[in-house]
Amino acid sequence: MPEFKIQHVTKYTYEGLVRDSANQIILFPIKDEYQDVIKQELHITGNPVVDTHIDYYGNEVGSFTYSDKHSVMLINSRLSVVTKQRPLPVNDIFPEQQWEYLKQIQYMVPYIDFLKQEYFEGLPDLQEIVNKERLMDETPFQIALRFCSYVYQNFEYIKGVTTVETTLDEVWKLKAGVCQDFAHILMVMLRLLKIPARYVSGYICTHSSAMRGEGATHAWAEAYIPDYGWLGIDPTNNCIANDTHVRLAVGRNFSDCSPVKGVYKGSSGHKLEVAVNVEDENGSPYEDKAIHDAPVLQAVTELSKNSYQRYMEIVQQQQQQQ
């Protein structure tokens, strides 16, 4: 059972002094038979009291308010977590029985939210792809892996081309994005076949250069498989999410699982920076990672550009470098 030490730093830098910063954090890993939190330390600028509760989807959520005037706010989470490898689904039930079971549960409360899909302009096109990619004799498990591979092969992984506010239509037009965009597209494909699908936020804990998503929070999807339960699928890396994926929260989409969000009084201009550092059981002790070397979410002034504009700028930069 691997043990990982994870440091997650979130830094807000404001253009002027602000106050009454009210925030919600979902930085507390899920605790179940496959994931156990050994220790967690949470340090926040001003040392505010953090009240916690369990939300509708079973996530531990913290809330705090920092009332004093400040120009910088730092949220530093350090934790040690042990994961256990999950067994994979066994295809020992006829496909027809599994699809019939999914029909029976689609109106049951635990699954309804994970089957609803908001309309976007690209939905009819994606429906055609789903119909084409689906093989009628395959099980939901096999279909989920096929769709995962489709997203991985047909969407380009480009950091900075999208933000948390990017719509499905923009992602569909770009055919590019990062882990949260890949997860959202995969969930749509699964839901179109009435397979319950939910969004997962967390960390990927591997030092493999072939794996995407290190150095920041990661996201993937979970599909509900009959006679098995929720199966994690990572379309960003075209793999099953197992003991190297540490889960923070689950929900209908990114909005339900956002690690940090909040409001404040003061200047509207601010910059958000996020850094994640992972060490395994053989790694060195925690070292504060320099926040200025971390992947940075673009400043508010840059977020006013739409995704397509950012995409074209990135393409132009790459062409100039060649």
TrEMBL record:
Gene3D superfamilies assigned to the protein according to its UniProt record, in alphabetical order: 3.10.620.30
Record-level Gene Ontology MF annotations: peptidase activity
Pfam family, one: Transglut_core
Protein name as catalogued: Transglutaminase-like enzyme, putative cysteine protease
Transglutaminase-like domain residues: 171-237
GO biological process, any: proteolysis
Signal peptide: none
Keyword annotations: Hydrolase, Protease
